[in-house]
Amino acid sequence: MSKLKAISLFLLLPAATSLLAQKALVISTVRISAGSFTMGADAQALPPAVVNGLGVMSPRPIHGDWDEHPAHKVTLTHSFAIATHLVTVEEFQQFDPSYKGVPAYPKYAAGISYEQAMAFCNWLTKKTGKPWRLPTEAEWEYTARAGTQTPFFTGDTPPAPGQVNPWGVVIGEGTPEWVADWYAPYPDSPEVDPTGPLHGHFRVVRGGGLDARHPKPGQIYPAMAPYFERSANRASVAPSFTSAAGNIGFRVVQAPMPRSNPTPQRQYFFRTDVKQKAIDLTAGPSASTPFYRLHELFPNLNGKSMPEVGWAIGLARGLGITYHNSAVQELANGDMVAAYYNSPNKEDDPDQTVLIMRRRAGSESWDMPEPWPYFADAACAAPVFWNDNGRLWLFFGFPRLIGAPPFAFTTSGDNGATWSAIRFPHFTGPVGRYVSQPINSIVRAKDGTIYIPTDSTGRGAGGLSAASAVWATKDDGKTWYDTGGRTGGRHTTLVIGRNGDLLGFGGKNSEIDGHMPLSISSDGGKTWRVVPTPFDELMSGERPSVIRLADGKLFFVADYNPHHLKHLHKDGAFVALSSDDGKTWKQKRLPANILTVGYVTATQGPDGLIHIVTSKNTVNCEILRNEAWVLSDSEAATADPQAVAHVVRHRENWPNGKPKAIWSTGRANDGETLLEGTQTFYFSNSKPQWIAHFHLGRKTGTETFYRAGGSKLWEKTYADDGTWTWRNFDRAGHVTSESQWRGKTLLTADLPQPK
Hints:
Blueprint: E1 5-10, E2 25-32, E3 35-39, H1 48-51, E4 72-76, E5 80-83, H2 89-95, H3 114-128, E6 132-133, H4 137-145, E7 177-182, E8 191-192, E9 203-206, H5 226-229, E10 235-237, E11 249-250, E12 253-254, E13 292-296, H6 306-310, E14 322-330, E15 336-343, E16 353-359, E17 370-371, E18 381-388, E19 391-397, E20 408-412, E21 443-444, E22 450-456, E23 467-473, E24 481-486, E25 490-496, E26 502-508, E27 515-521, E28 529-536, E29 545-548, E30 554-559, E31 573-578, E32 586-589, E33 601-604, E34 610-613, E35 621-625, H7 627-631, E36 644-653, E37 659-668, E38 673-675, E39 677-682, E40 688-695, E41 698-706, E42 712-718, E43 723-729, E44 735-742, E45 745-750
Parallel strand pairs: 4-8, 7-11
Antiparallel strand pairs: 1-2, 2-5, 3-4, 5-12, 6-12, 7-9, 9-10, 13-35, 14-15, 15-16, 16-17, 18-19, 19-20, 21-22, 22-23, 23-24, 25-26, 26-27, 27-28, 29-30, 30-31, 31-32, 33-34, 34-35, 36-37, 37-38, 37-39, 39-40, 40-41, 41-42, 42-43, 43-44, 44-45
């Protein structure tokens, strides 16, 4: 296919630059003809040199990432002129004279947000009278492949820096660049002029990786690893991400935007069929009777492969097998949400995400986890939930993202059904040392200031060997500032003292005479003093949690570590109560099946129950208990409820008055408010979406979830002995997988045979 090269010359005169000082902007483009190609992962296994982890990540999948599948035919019916190179520093400065460039990436305008790239295109369109835009994802891959179907246009090895492909474009050389589309999984059918979903939280990035670990000049790995330079590789980032040290650039296309031909968005169950009506959340077990119960959190595949078996039987694609660094919160509707980091293999791999799962109000079981937020090829970690009087905040960080800020955040005003655009902090002053890893506690002071701690580098208060930074906002997240000081430990968990001081417990890698330090600030985090606590020092894999209970006491949970050892997790864990802001504590060991709580998080619901979620334990659980259990001498778990009374029917409507959800709850003999009877959620056209049956908060009979068109997506059938069967269906009604479970543990799986 012949390609005609065209050089476009434009004289652009921004108001901020004088006519004499302004240079003519020359953008070199090539005309790409219409055509078809196979988009997505290549059929052949990738060579070892491409999947090599290079000592900074796990080996990559030999058939590419899951989001590159299925490979499918794409037809582009239009020609377009695409820039032969990324927009350079000089070119971008004609649009924004204040832009300084990124020294590590001098050949192109790096650290640019999607929003800035779009603004450049709009400016260029206005100045030239011709339509300029970003390439669609399909246009980008079509151009990068240049008629090939190999990992690179050069075959099995990546191109040399600056090498021009057969169609005259320098592309796929390890420099990541924005494209126009929102990020979503590929469809399983051919596409014509695809433009991606209509909405989303992440824009697609192509051409290179985003993470760096122990970088050296010219060796920024894994970002520059051959795997991420492949024509099929996909990354994604929130569109507002910009950084003075970032590596994302962009190129432009001169052509009208194709007519919108959107692909479906990914559906997340944790955001589906979320009730907004709150029942009486204060009704719960007796505060004077000890209450203790466990809810298992994660699926256990019994050693089977997550990609080959787990995803095939219905678990979310992208879900891994390593979960750590917990978050938990009760919502305004009574649901519980939990979050962890989620990795297919090792911590901080580029395909590590945050995962979220939900336990619906009145249910005794957690829904299966799903990866979100999903920054493809940029590891996410350290989620933190905060319920701010009904407004749910989610904070998270980036252990390896090039140019990462201390944290990112998003909010929800409808119990996690929808989320705001992901935002990055706008700082109004100097920013000191930090690690992009938020810690499990967000607090609001009496004057309205919100504080969030993250890890930090260097030494901490009192000369201790580790530190955490504390960030603050006085305008509900519009602007942020570094409070200035650093606490005396890594993973410091915060609470507001009764006198208004910031109290920071721990977290790890520092000690005073073998004890965990307490950092205290009386000036909003500018300075800290440290004193010892009665608790053991914490080390690798351990993080404490402290919260203020409704009755004013402090509640604390952490691991024992009497021998000051790393990675051992054998000495058990404890909870503690304090009525005098930490001067004295009533401690209690958790039962023997809790060997560690790991990176633990605690919260309290309106019914008085205290919820903690564990990590690093043999089986990770949500642990519910009340103060009476902490103060008692018994470690016994509360018996499962046996009877229910006072069953009440509830209904929630769509704006058109048609039913959205109908369900019933009752009061169990142990005091819990539990789901009882049939629960049905409806589409807005009154067709059922999700039908489940409950007795004493546990599912019974057959649970069914339907597609919008009426076909069955999946069903789960529950037996009296605790086993259940999960079947998935295609649109024609054929069973695509069947698996048998006991609780969260997979027993058997029947999968379709490869064709």
